[in-house]
Design goal:
Layout (H helix, E strand, L loop, with lengths): L8 E3 L6 H20 L4 H5 L9 H20 L16 H8 L5 H26 L12 H27 L10 E3 L4
Helix pairs in contact: 1-6, 3-4, 3-5, 3-6
Length: about 190
């Protein structure tokens, strides 16, 4: 994670097509989550609130796994990269949460950054190939549904990250600081 909290963020265009609106919403959620996790050491990424075992580090690794599982694997049809490929499918999600406790901040940030980069590539290729209504590799649902589900996933976890980050150093706020840019398909 580059930690640049002045870079701003991308959001959906005020008037845009369906793909730009959906992907812009996802990018805004990603940016908010990234900002909530930015610039922390191991203690900050390991902080907990109350009796919960949830930490920012666990959320980073969980979302990296979910990005790769859904976009790299299911949407893009590519094999899962490491570290996921070496972990048995059954229990992999729980492993992603629990193993994060032993990972360095650099490892956690790098996992998330790399997974998001792969996801962006897979998503943009899918939108260009068939648009939001296209089904992905498994044929189970539309790309539209997958993106909406991921916006929801990030929204839920960004809210959790908001509480966790506030407990670490008081950082609060809805959006990263800096200029706002409308999403444009790359």
């Amino acid at each position: 994670m580059d930690g640049d909290t002045t870079a701003g963020y991308v959001e959906p265009p005020a008037v845009g097509d369906e793909a730009s609106t959906l992907l812009g919403s996802l990018e805004r959620q990603r940016a908010t989550f990234r900002w909530k996790c930015a610039d922390l050491d191991h203690a900050g990424l390991s902080a907990r609130v109350g009796a919960s075992t949830l930490t920012l580090g666990r959320l980073l690794k969980h979302l990296a796994y979910m990005e790769d599982l859904n976009f790299t694997g299911e949407l893009g049809g590519a094999p899962l990269p490491e570290p996921w490929a070496s972990v048995p499918e059954e229990g992999r999600s729980e492993w992603a949460f629990e193993s994060a406790d032993a990972d360095s901040p650099q490892t956690l940030y790098a996992l998330w950054d790399a997974a998001v980069a792969r996801s962006r590539t897979a998503l943009e290729a899918a939108v260009r190939a068939g648009g939001p209504g296209a089904t992905f590799a498994s044929g189970r649902e539309s790309l539209r549904r997958l993106i909406v589900d991921f916006i929801e996933e990030y929204g839920r976890h960004a809210g959790q990250a908001d509480l966790l980050r506030e407990s670490v150093d008081g950082r609060v706020g809805e959006d990263p600081p800096g200029p706002v840019r409308a999403y444009e398909l790359g």
